[in-house]
Amino acid sequence: MSDIRRAFLGPFAHKEGPNYQWLPFQGKVPYPRPGMCPSRTFGSFESTKGFPDGVIQFARHHPLMFNPVTPLGGRPVFIRTSAEYRFSQITVDRVNAADGQYDVMFIGTDVGTVLKVISVPKGTWSNTALLLEELQVFKDSSSIINMQISSKRQQLYVASETGIMQLPLHRCSVYGKACAECCLARDPYCAWDGTTCTRYLPNTKRRFRRQDVRNGDPNTLCSGDHSKQRVSEKKLYAVEGSSSFLECVPKSLQARVTWTYQRHPNNPREEVRLDDRTMQMDRGLLLRSVQKRDAGVYQCHAMEHGFTQTLLQLSLEVLTSTNPAPRLPANQKLWYRDFMQLLDQPNMNAVDQVCPAVWSQKHNQPLKSLPDPMKKAPPLDQQDPTHKMWKLKKGRSRRTHDKHVPRAPRSAGE
């Protein structure tokens, strides 16, 4: 508060010079000084309505103070670069952990996401911000306009122009089922109780509560934990010449992901080399134009605070694009071949010929000869006499509406 008071008692900001640079105002400041509360002690002003016009004009032209109010350490608490959003709201919860108190910041954005950030002390006067979670609250990406914390219910209420959402302040179960993952999360709400990552309560008397938010060193914290996490194994198939994506997302956002590769079980495991064809993305490894030599066993490793753990093991098998199609029994036929035969016809009139052919094949009946839709009909004098006579009778039975003779009205005596 002393820094804020010092800034408001300092000089006002003023634009001067040809470039309109912000400089401290060196002129005379009117009385009462803008920013002071009206009182009868100084000037006998009951409200701001009684201020002189000079004070009002000065406040309009000098709305800023020259001296800034900097945070502890002289730098912003949390910086996010190259982000496709802006911060819109912030609310802070002070949490008691095993090694002290921590400020947990919930920051709302203009795209409907909430960032969970903690400020960890680093040295005497400096802090380090850690991003714990980034949640998409509103699917329509509406801007967050208000946030409130309920410490009693341990809930966060988020509001936008389209709705209100309720979120828990802590989700300890998402940090995995191992002591190392719970420790590396560095969430002051959570702690390892010997079996799972659960809510940390300072008043509970449990011997196996393990938490280290400041350092997050699993080598020291989980040294007595003999339960090893089982590595998940998956098998993936890729076609030669196509692209394949090996997905691996660590639980901790501060972890650095590395990949190792082993082609044969007898070969040594080596680190995957990145190039134009092998690219590491945010959610895994992208293999472009897969080749035969890419087949093998891939392992995804997460490194943080000098601790390395294997998250996933993928077995990649590459199939050649020239492999023959599987043979089917003589009485079995692919269901889509008849449909593809219809799509191959450039002329829609030919559909009338294809459909009866397909029907006759399925019902084992001979196909009757159908007239060619593209063939022109013969002249009238060359047609069958019976057909010609039927045409003439049909034409005589029609009434001609072109030559309509009006009839005279009948008299009443008729």
From TrEMBL:
User: What organism, scientifically named, is this protein from?
Assistant: Denticeps clupeoides (denticle herring)
Annotated ranges, domain Ig-like: 218-317
Q: Which InterPro entries match?
A: Ig-like_dom, Ig-like_dom_sf, Ig-like_fold, Ig_I-set, Ig_sub, Plexin_repeat, PSI, Semap_dom
- Which gene is the coding source of this polypeptide chain? LOC114776532
**Species lineage:** Eukaryota, Metazoa, Chordata, Craniata, Vertebrata
Protein name (Swiss-Prot/TrEMBL): Uncharacterized protein
Q: Identify the PANTHER family for this entry.
A: SEMAPHORIN (PTHR11036), SEMAPHORIN-3B (PTHR11036:SF37)
Q: Which UniProt keywords apply?
A: Disulfide bond, Glycoprotein, Immunoglobulin domain, Membrane, Secreted, Signal
Q: Which Pfam families match?
A: I-set (PF07679), PSI (PF01437), Sema (PF01403)
Q: Show the SMART domains listed in the entry.
A: IG, PSI
The entry assigns this protein to a family as follows: Belongs to the semaphorin family.
One term of GO molecular function: chemorepellent activity
**Transport recorded as keyword:** no
Q: Where is the composition biased (Basic residues)?
A: 388-407
- One Gene Ontology term, aspect cellular component: plasma membrane
Instruction: Name one process (GO BP) from the record.
Output: neural crest cell migration
Ranges where the record places region Disordered: 365-414
Residues forming the Sema domain are 1-169
Quote the subcellular location field of this record. Answer: Membrane; Secreted
